[in-house]
Amino acid sequence: MINGDLMKKTSVFCVVLLFCIFLVSCSTPPNFEKQYFAMGTVITQNIYGTDPQKAADEVFSKIQQLESVLTINKAGSQIDTLNSNAGNGKWIPLDKEIIYILETAQKYAALSNGAFDPTVGPLVKAWGIFTDHPRIPPQTEIKRLLKLVNYKDLLLDVPNLSARLTKKGQIVDLGGIAKGYAGDVAKDIYIKDGIKSAFINLGGNVVALGSKPDGSPWKVGIQNPRQPDGKYLGIVPIRNQTVVTSGDYERYFERNGVRYHHIIDPKTGAPSKSGLISTSIITDVSINADALSTATFVLGLEKAMALVESLPGVEAIFITSDKKIYTTKGLQGVFTFTDTSGEFTYVEKR
Amino acid sequence: MLKKGDLILFGVIIIIIASAFLISNLSHNNSAGKTAEIIHNGKVLRTFDLNSITKSEDITIDDKYHNIIRVEQGRIRFLESTCPDQICVKTGWLTSNGDIAVCLPNQAIIKITGKADNVDIVA
């Protein structure tokens, strides 16, 4: 009798204790956050889960591997091989995922009528925008190089996983889409590792898995294009989605008071002057968002709005050079404008 | 079976655990501690409790470029840099949890740990 009573008490005690431990451990899942340098930017991983380090390491090595095959700054990478064989008729075998990236790039090039173009490489190189020695190329040079920019000259043989460029001197530059793809891959790795709640930020390309551990949506600040990194002018809540921003502030150099930014208009061969200084795309797949953010930046407000509104499941925020903010219809009432400086105006209804 | 004393015991245990949980949770979110980190090439070089700093200190990083980082009570910044874009210096003072400044060309990061008040991420 005494024994039985003690057993019961002990078991009730254990259940209560276990329940309490469960409560404590569940409501405060470990939060792992770390910054990395890769793909020419700073990458932040933020993971809630039991073994975040493992997933984070896996993601970072995958990103480094992607960078090594996609870079145009290293001789012998797959994309460099494609470029250096441009015009010689040879089909270049490529990894399946590179074919997928090229296919997606081509799709958005066609959709945007060439406002986004993966063959803009010769011009990016001429401006030296991602180097320590940017320059303004002479008009004659720009005119000559513009003839090399045409996404239709990138030929893909999808079943045989190979590609070629038709003209000598053509250069595929995946800078406008590679980070988006890397974000999608990171999310897949988190899912595979059983993580339910995480985000990765690749220099302004945010990809979220699930929602915050407490079930509420991730709150994504939209960078104020005229303030230092991290200062935002509005908030978009997302669950399991991606937000990709392209802005004239991300990379630029100044000569005689003129700002030359990194988004080259494939039609003019110069930094885009569409009247937009920042575009943010919100959707499910980050590679699509990445291509669209560049495309819409080059297209300008009217065409960009028309393009995005024609695509299901895609929302956008556009900021013009006269400091006005426009959103797609789907973001009205969702996007919260937070700038109190009076510098920017939110034009909710057009 | 279960005596009054046992119930009281369970009650006390639950209260203790619940309050421990509350306290740990509060201290997580509170900015009672403001910790700054200087990170270079993925390694944390120095950690500061910004609130307990009494006199300013300069920390230098020599790599491809030369960074001078100034730490003062409650704040930290890139003071000078030899890098071409100067984005790190232009970021200015970091004062709140979650603030970060990066010198990409020199692979240097300064940040105040923790989470910003109203947003999780900025894109």
SSE run of chain B: HEEEEEHEEE
Q: Biggest interface pair, residues each?
A: A-B, 48 and 39 residues
The percent range for strand residues of chain B is 35-45%
Radius of gyration of chain A: 24 Å
- How many structural units, i.e. domains of chain A? 2
**Can you tell me the CATH architecture of the largest domain in chain B?**
Sandwich
- Sheet-strand content of chain A, in percent, reads 15-25%
- Helix content range of chain B: 10-25%
**How are the strands of the largest sheet of chain B arranged?**
2-1-7-6
Low-confidence stretches of chain B: 27-31
Structural class by sheet pairing and helices of chain A: alpha+beta
Structural notes for this entry:
Chain A has nine helices and 17 strands. Helix content of chain A is 35%, strand content 25%. The radius of gyration of chain A is 24 Å and the shape is globular. Chain A has two domains: 174 residues, T-fold (Roll), CATH 3.10.520; 111 residues, T-fold (Orthogonal Bundle), CATH 1.10.3980. The mean pLDDT of chain A is 93. By secondary structure, chain A is α+β, with helices and mostly antiparallel strands. In chain A, helix 2 packs antiparallel against helix 7, helix 7 packs antiparallel against helix 8 and helix 8 packs antiparallel against helix 9. In chain A, the strands form four sheets. Chain A has a nine-stranded mixed β-sheet with strand order 1-2-6-7-10-13-14-15-17, with helices on one face. Chain B contains two helices and eight strands. Chain B folds into two domains: 30 residues; 78 residues, mini-chromosome maintenance (MCM) complex, domain 2 (Sandwich), CATH 2.60.320.10. At the A-B interface, helix 1, strand 1, strand 2, strand 7 and strand 8 of A face helix 1, strand 6 and strand 8 of B.
Can you summarize this structure?
Chain A has 350 residues and is an alpha+beta fold. In chain A, 35% of the residues lie in helices and 25% in strands. In chain A, the strands form four sheets. Chain A has a nine-stranded mixed sheet, with helices on one face. A three-stranded antiparallel sheet of chain A has the order 3-5-4, covered by helices on one side. Chain A has a three-stranded antiparallel sheet with strand order 8-9-16, with no helix packed on it.
